[in-house]
Here is the input.
Amino acid sequence: MLPSDKYEKIIEFMCEYKKINRDELFKILKDQQCKYLMLLLLKKYKCIDSDMINNYFPSYSKKSLNYGFKKAREKFFVNKDFRELYFEIEDDMKKSL
Here is the structure.
């Protein structure tokens, strides 16, 4: 599977989870939990190319990307509900990939 296809799948799942259209993609970044889930999924599926991320989210700098990964990992280890939601979304993604 091409990296751009992986991005598309992850973004589709996040839009589906958030119940938004593809046109409203920037709402994912406004919701902290969705943003962190998306970043963790991107990291898991090795889609951490900052150029590709900038195509989808042009205002997301490399510095904010690294900070987001750090905060997402912290939230994953501390928050049980967040961790369960991550594994639920990951299982759904595994079924579709």
Summary: The helical segments are 3-18, 27-30, 32-44, 50-56, 62-78, 80-96. Residues 62-78 form the longest helix (17 residues). The chain has a mean pLDDT of 82. Residues 16 and 22 are 9 Å apart (CA to CA).
